Amino acid sequence: MATKLMDLVYWRSVRRTAVVFTGLVIGLASMFQLSVITVLSHVCLGAMCVTFPLRLYYKLLELLRWNPGVHPFQSYLDNDASLTDKETVMLVEEVVLLIAFAFTEIKRLLFIDSMIDSIKFVVLLYLLTYVGVQINGLTLVITAVITIFSIPLLYKKQQVRLRRMVRAVKAFVKRIKNMCFSLYDSVRPSPASEPAPKPTPAAAPAPKQKAKSK
Protein backbone atom coordinates (compact mmCIF):
# COMPACT_ATOMS: atom_id res chain seq x y z
CA MET A 1 0.00 0.00 0.00
CA ALA A 2 2.78 2.42 0.85
CA THR A 3 4.52 1.67 -2.45
CA LYS A 4 1.32 2.32 -4.38
CA LEU A 5 0.80 5.61 -2.59
CA MET A 6 4.36 6.69 -3.36
CA ASP A 7 3.85 5.75 -7.01
CA LEU A 8 0.74 7.95 -7.10
CA VAL A 9 2.39 10.90 -5.37
CA TYR A 10 5.51 10.82 -7.54
CA TRP A 11 3.49 10.48 -10.78
CA ARG A 12 5.23 7.26 -11.85
CA SER A 13 2.06 6.30 -13.72
CA VAL A 14 0.80 9.58 -15.15
CA ARG A 15 -2.59 8.28 -16.26
CA ARG A 16 -3.44 6.62 -12.95
CA THR A 17 -2.23 9.57 -10.88
CA ALA A 18 -4.15 12.02 -13.07
CA VAL A 19 -7.36 10.02 -12.62
CA VAL A 20 -6.93 9.76 -8.84
CA PHE A 21 -5.91 13.41 -8.43
CA THR A 22 -8.79 14.72 -10.59
CA GLY A 23 -11.28 12.49 -8.83
CA LEU A 24 -10.14 13.60 -5.39
CA VAL A 25 -10.25 17.30 -6.23
CA ILE A 26 -13.65 17.10 -7.95
CA GLY A 27 -15.09 14.95 -5.16
CA LEU A 28 -13.85 17.26 -2.42
CA ALA A 29 -14.99 20.36 -4.30
CA SER A 30 -18.46 18.81 -4.70
CA MET A 31 -18.77 18.57 -0.93
CA PHE A 32 -19.05 22.36 -0.75
CA GLN A 33 -22.59 22.07 -2.13
CA LEU A 34 -23.54 18.44 -1.43
CA SER A 35 -23.22 16.09 1.51
CA VAL A 36 -20.68 13.28 1.72
CA ILE A 37 -23.37 10.62 1.26
CA THR A 38 -24.69 12.33 -1.87
CA VAL A 39 -21.21 12.64 -3.37
CA LEU A 40 -20.35 8.99 -2.68
CA SER A 41 -23.67 7.83 -4.08
CA HIS A 42 -23.19 9.82 -7.28
CA VAL A 43 -19.63 8.53 -7.69
CA CYS A 44 -20.77 4.92 -7.32
CA LEU A 45 -23.68 5.49 -9.72
CA GLY A 46 -21.32 7.05 -12.27
CA ALA A 47 -18.97 4.07 -12.02
CA MET A 48 -21.84 1.59 -12.42
CA CYS A 49 -23.10 3.51 -15.46
CA VAL A 50 -19.84 2.43 -17.10
CA THR A 51 -19.34 -1.06 -15.67
CA PHE A 52 -22.93 -2.33 -15.99
CA PRO A 53 -23.39 -1.68 -19.76
CA LEU A 54 -19.92 -3.09 -20.42
CA ARG A 55 -20.77 -6.25 -18.48
CA LEU A 56 -24.04 -6.60 -20.42
CA TYR A 57 -22.16 -6.14 -23.68
CA TYR A 58 -19.71 -8.93 -22.86
CA LYS A 59 -22.59 -11.14 -21.71
CA LEU A 60 -24.36 -10.56 -25.03
CA LEU A 61 -21.20 -11.48 -26.90
CA GLU A 62 -20.99 -14.65 -24.81
CA LEU A 63 -24.59 -15.58 -25.70
CA LEU A 64 -23.85 -15.01 -29.37
CA ARG A 65 -20.73 -17.17 -28.95
CA TRP A 66 -18.51 -14.29 -30.03
CA ASN A 67 -16.84 -14.22 -26.66
CA PRO A 68 -15.41 -17.22 -24.80
CA GLY A 69 -16.95 -16.02 -21.54
CA VAL A 70 -14.21 -13.61 -20.44
CA HIS A 71 -15.24 -11.24 -17.70
CA PRO A 72 -14.21 -7.65 -18.55
CA PHE A 73 -13.26 -6.91 -14.95
CA GLN A 74 -11.78 -10.27 -14.00
CA SER A 75 -8.37 -8.76 -13.21
CA TYR A 76 -9.97 -6.43 -10.66
CA LEU A 77 -11.98 -9.30 -9.16
CA ASP A 78 -8.88 -11.49 -8.84
CA ASN A 79 -6.95 -8.73 -7.09
CA ASP A 80 -6.80 -9.82 -3.46
CA ALA A 81 -7.00 -6.75 -1.22
CA SER A 82 -7.69 -8.66 1.99
CA LEU A 83 -5.35 -8.57 4.97
CA THR A 84 -3.77 -11.56 6.61
CA ASP A 85 -4.02 -12.10 10.35
CA LYS A 86 -0.48 -10.82 10.88
CA GLU A 87 -1.07 -7.70 8.79
CA THR A 88 -4.35 -7.03 10.60
CA VAL A 89 -2.67 -7.29 14.00
CA MET A 90 0.17 -4.99 12.90
CA LEU A 91 -2.28 -2.44 11.51
CA VAL A 92 -4.37 -2.46 14.69
CA GLU A 93 -1.23 -2.09 16.82
CA GLU A 94 -0.07 0.90 14.78
CA VAL A 95 -3.47 2.58 15.06
CA VAL A 96 -3.64 1.95 18.82
CA LEU A 97 -0.11 3.25 19.34
CA LEU A 98 -0.87 6.35 17.30
CA ILE A 99 -4.04 7.05 19.30
CA ALA A 100 -2.22 6.47 22.60
CA PHE A 101 0.63 8.77 21.55
CA ALA A 102 -1.82 11.52 20.52
CA PHE A 103 -3.75 11.19 23.79
CA THR A 104 -0.54 11.33 25.84
CA GLU A 105 0.73 14.40 24.02
CA ILE A 106 -2.58 16.26 24.36
CA LYS A 107 -2.74 15.40 28.05
CA ARG A 108 0.84 16.60 28.52
CA LEU A 109 0.09 19.89 26.75
CA LEU A 110 -3.22 20.55 28.50
CA PHE A 111 -1.92 19.88 32.00
CA ILE A 112 1.28 21.94 31.50
CA ASP A 113 3.94 19.29 31.78
CA SER A 114 6.34 21.63 29.94
CA MET A 115 5.78 25.38 29.98
CA ILE A 116 7.49 25.97 26.61
CA ASP A 117 5.53 23.25 24.79
CA SER A 118 2.24 24.38 26.32
CA ILE A 119 2.91 27.99 25.26
CA LYS A 120 3.61 26.81 21.72
CA PHE A 121 0.37 24.82 21.79
CA VAL A 122 -1.58 27.86 22.96
CA VAL A 123 -0.09 30.00 20.17
CA LEU A 124 -0.97 27.30 17.62
CA LEU A 125 -4.55 27.10 18.85
CA TYR A 126 -4.85 30.89 18.77
CA LEU A 127 -3.63 30.99 15.18
CA LEU A 128 -6.02 28.18 14.24
CA THR A 129 -8.95 30.29 15.45
CA TYR A 130 -8.08 32.89 12.80
CA VAL A 131 -7.59 30.16 10.18
CA GLY A 132 -11.01 28.73 11.04
CA VAL A 133 -12.64 32.14 10.56
CA GLN A 134 -11.12 32.61 7.11
CA ILE A 135 -11.39 29.09 5.68
CA ASN A 136 -13.04 25.82 6.65
CA GLY A 137 -11.58 22.36 7.05
CA LEU A 138 -12.61 21.19 3.60
CA THR A 139 -10.60 23.96 1.97
CA LEU A 140 -7.56 22.89 3.99
CA VAL A 141 -8.05 19.27 2.87
CA ILE A 142 -8.25 20.31 -0.81
CA THR A 143 -5.15 22.48 -0.39
CA ALA A 144 -3.31 19.58 1.28
CA VAL A 145 -4.26 17.20 -1.56
CA ILE A 146 -3.07 19.65 -4.22
CA THR A 147 0.16 20.26 -2.29
CA ILE A 148 0.88 16.54 -1.81
CA PHE A 149 0.47 15.84 -5.51
CA SER A 150 2.24 19.01 -6.70
CA ILE A 151 5.38 19.37 -4.58
CA PRO A 152 7.02 16.01 -5.53
CA LEU A 153 6.37 16.68 -9.22
CA LEU A 154 7.74 20.22 -8.91
CA TYR A 155 10.83 18.96 -7.10
CA LYS A 156 11.35 16.29 -9.74
CA LYS A 157 11.15 18.80 -12.58
CA GLN A 158 13.11 21.62 -10.91
CA GLN A 159 15.47 19.58 -8.76
CA VAL A 160 18.71 21.32 -9.76
CA ARG A 161 17.27 24.83 -9.43
CA LEU A 162 15.69 24.06 -6.05
CA ARG A 163 18.95 22.66 -4.72
CA ARG A 164 20.74 25.83 -5.80
CA MET A 165 18.12 27.92 -4.04
CA VAL A 166 18.42 25.84 -0.86
CA ARG A 167 22.21 26.19 -0.88
CA ALA A 168 21.90 29.94 -1.42
CA VAL A 169 19.43 30.25 1.47
CA LYS A 170 21.69 28.19 3.76
CA ALA A 171 24.69 30.34 2.85
CA PHE A 172 22.69 33.52 3.50
CA VAL A 173 21.50 32.24 6.89
CA LYS A 174 25.03 31.24 7.81
CA ARG A 175 26.32 34.69 6.82
CA ILE A 176 23.65 36.37 8.95
CA LYS A 177 24.55 34.15 11.92
CA ASN A 178 28.24 34.95 11.59
CA MET A 179 27.43 38.67 11.34
CA CYS A 180 25.28 38.52 14.48
CA PHE A 181 27.94 36.60 16.40
CA SER A 182 30.68 39.05 15.36
CA LEU A 183 28.47 42.01 16.32
CA TYR A 184 27.74 40.44 19.68
CA ASP A 185 31.43 39.81 20.31
CA SER A 186 32.26 43.43 19.47
CA VAL A 187 29.53 44.85 21.72
CA ARG A 188 30.01 42.49 24.64
CA PRO A 189 32.10 44.16 27.39
CA SER A 190 35.43 42.55 28.07
CA PRO A 191 35.66 40.89 31.47
CA ALA A 192 37.47 43.05 34.12
CA SER A 193 41.00 41.98 34.75
CA GLU A 194 41.38 40.46 38.17
CA PRO A 195 44.09 41.96 40.44
CA ALA A 196 47.21 39.90 40.70
CA PRO A 197 47.32 37.95 43.94
CA LYS A 198 49.70 39.34 46.55
CA PRO A 199 52.70 37.17 47.28
CA THR A 200 52.40 35.44 50.58
CA PRO A 201 55.25 36.26 53.04
CA ALA A 202 57.73 33.49 53.48
CA ALA A 203 57.51 31.73 56.76
CA ALA A 204 60.38 32.37 59.17
CA PRO A 205 62.70 29.42 59.55
CA ALA A 206 62.21 27.52 62.74
CA PRO A 207 65.13 27.97 65.26
CA LYS A 208 67.44 25.01 65.38
CA GLN A 209 67.61 23.29 68.68
CA LYS A 210 71.11 22.88 70.03
CA ALA A 211 72.06 19.38 70.47
CA LYS A 212 72.46 18.56 74.15
CA SER A 213 75.86 17.35 75.05
CA LYS A 214 75.97 14.32 77.12
Q: How would you describe what is shown here?
A:
- The protein has 214 residues and is an all-alpha fold.
- 72% of the residues lie in helices and 0% in strands.
- The chain is built from eight helices and no strands.
What's the short story on this structure?
With about 210 residues, this protein is mostly helical.
Please bin the fraction of helical residues: over 70%
Counting helices, strands and paired strands, the structural category is mainly alpha
Instruction: Provide a count of the helices.
Output: 8
Distance between the termini: 109 Å
Q: Beta fraction of the residues?
A: under 5%
| Global morphology | elongated
Largest sheet: none
**Rg to the nearest angstrom?**
37 Å
Please mark out the parts with pLDDT under 50 across 5 or more consecutive residues, or reply none.
210-214
Furnish the topology, listing elements before pairings.
Elements: H1 2-9, H2 14-30, H3 36-63, H4 74-78, H5 85-110, H6 115-134, H7 137-157, H8 159-187
Helix pairs in contact: 2-7
Question: Top keywords for this entry?
Answer:
214 residues; mainly alpha; 8 helices; 72% helix; 0% strand; disordered C terminus
